[in-house]
């Protein structure tokens, strides 16, 4: 069975690059009727950030990417499901100790007692002599008696793998094809740290094997470490999984995505009101395409279409304008009732009581204009409370305050006596005819009406707003405008 995994560290919010990695692993598993696992790699205890695990799981819930096995969020509680756990590395320390003993007994790993001062000096000398930096193997050939004596003296140590110094390690990568590494250029990686915790390089191999991971899908930053992992598999006599190393995500300035250059966590985009279906659709295209001109895919359609043969090697550009375009298309296709439902939490965050309003009508005002749900809420706030504005805003182009006041008063009188249902459509039909009969221009009437109803320089049209506000509130705001002038 195809089994893939995503294994984040709980050191912060879920990065959009990490989501892309997880999404591809999920889609590949789904396409082949396999399983997608979530494992938590928390062996670097010093970098643990409170609440980050919850955030990672909540981000997955938002995207509707389903975790089949591992660490999951159920009814607000963090749980582990599956028979190959624990799925949190800090709970697997006995397992790592068991397997490091195997390597020590086979002489494929060794104790290293080098101090931090010695390692720092070694690196300094290598850099000054323009040599490749890496461990020099100082403790590689200590005798058993020497090791036992140091252990007896309680000297601090790490355990390193004994990397072969000859030969070539080959990776047949699903994205990058054949990649070769000369073993002599790779240093002896630390496997167990001085605190007894495993490094990523050791734990990932042990965990992927025991959890029967068939395909390891990860970022290209791990490509250089992969020969160490393959050698470890060989030392244990284990079958190596297939590897796929995904390209970097970069911004439009060709820089690696980072907080300095903009939002990089999934939660940032949740808070801004991006739709999960639009976000996932956009993320899927950062490195993959279906090979034709189709741009819109549901998650279920992506599960059927995804193929690593169509994943590129080049860095993918995270283009916020493209994301906004995707989100706007999804917003426009949504029913106004569904859109209102999606916007509710954003109105609640602004402490806006929407209970006495037809929210579907309100959000429809911005449905064809806004890029995000947050923008819809921001841009319709005038419905609930008219903002302060300067009376000069009411004056249309070459008109003046007195003429504007007269036109507003005429419009009020017309609206007071208008017959029929108070809807945008009925208002539009009646008012445009009346404006023409009065010998006025549309701007002479509709501009001051729009400003009086919204208090804004830019807003939806006045007849749309009036249809939402209702007759009483419309007339109240227009009378206030007359008084303002």
Total number of strands? 13
* Widest sheet: strand ordering: 1-2-3-4
Continuous helix count: 20
CATH superfamily label of the largest domain: HUPs
Level-1 CATH class name of the largest domain: Alpha Beta
Q: Average pLDDT, to the nearest integer?
A: 94
Calculate Rg over CA atoms.
32 Å
- For the record, the count of structural domains works out to 4
Architecture overview:
This protein is of the alpha/beta class and 485 residues long. It folds into 4 domains: 3-89 and 249-317, Rossmann fold (3-Layer(aba) Sandwich); 92-246, HUPs (Rossmann fold, 3-Layer(aba) Sandwich), CATH 3.40.50.620; 335-384, Helicase, Ruva Protein, domain 3 (Orthogonal Bundle); 391-484, Arc Repressor Mutant, subunit A. Helix content is 45%, strand content 12%. It contains 20 helices and 13 strands. The protein has helices at 16-31, 52-63, 93-105, 116-128, 144-152, 200-210, 226-236, 266-271, 276-284, 299-305, 320-333, 336-349, 359-364, 373-379, 381-384, 401-416, 424-437, 442-454, 462-469, 471-484, and strands at residues 3-6, 35-38, 69-74, 77-81, 109-112, 158-161, 168-173, 177-182, 190-192, 215-219, 242-246, 249-250, 316-317. A 4-stranded mixed sheet has the order 1-2-3-4. A 3-stranded antiparallel sheet has the order 5-6-9. The longest helix has 16 residues, at 16-31. It is elongated. The protein starts with a strand and ends with a helix. The model has no long low-confidence stretch (mean pLDDT 94).
